[in-house]
Amino acid sequence: MKSLLLSLFFATLAMVLSGCTVLAVADAAGSAVVYGVKTAVNVLDAVTPDIVNKKKD
Asked: Which of 15, 30, 34, 57 is most open to solvent, judged by the fewest CB atoms within 10 Å of its CB?
């Protein structure tokens, strides 16, 4: 009985940790996408400042 409970505990722990790992990877991927888009916008802004930032006279 004790080994069954111990096995169940470790199986539950492994599932919880793998879920946290999946969330961490998804968070890192989302952050990479956000920073990639910000970088692309900044590069576009630097290359074509007159098109992106039209001055209102």
From this structure: 57
The CA distance from 57 to 6, in Å, is: 74
Token couple for 33: 């996408």
What CA–CA distance (Å, rounded) separates 27 from 38?
Answer: 17
- Could you tell me if 52 and 45 are in contact, meaning their C-beta atoms sit under 8 angstroms apart? yes
Structure confidence at residue 45 (pLDDT): 81
Dig out the tokens for 48 from the structure. Answer: 């074509």
Interval 1-54: pLDDT, tens: 778 888 888 888 777 777 777 788 889 999 999 999 999 988 888 887 666 566
